[in-house]
Design brief:
mainly beta; Immunoglobulin-like; 6-stranded mixed sheet; 4-stranded mixed sheet; 12 strands
Length: 157
Amino acid sequence: MPAAPVGAADRTVRILGDDKFVANTMVASTFKFEPGPLRVAQGDTVTWSNTTDEPHTVSIVRQDQLPQTAEQAFDCAICGDIFAAHGDPNAPAPVVNNGQPGLDTAFAPGTSGDSLFIGPKGTPGSPVTATISAPSGATLYYLCAIHPWMQGSIRVN
């Protein structure tokens, strides 16, 4: 993960970047979560602020589900479960919660976890704030199911 961990004083994650597509030539994306790893206390809130014209998700997954290659990113194994949990792609559920209220539960194959849908900048659903309800000592790994190369983590102190 890029960037050094930040403390509870800075609990805003910006969604930055752009993408470019030229048929038969190129697909390029600089979408990312910034800063990278966060450290927060249980019960703290984190805000994801989308500065792009694209929607994104913050979907809690197990560390071994994070794509490590372009092939894995374009064939994201857990992303289908995340999309199914959000429902209608034209009107996705803004919050999918399994477990305690807040972010604490990872998706697993065939089961639901926690995921937030974040609309494009300037639309309802952007920014999004969530409480971190995972226990102290846990690390939450997350990705954008739409752009699975976008990945982050939250260490709960």
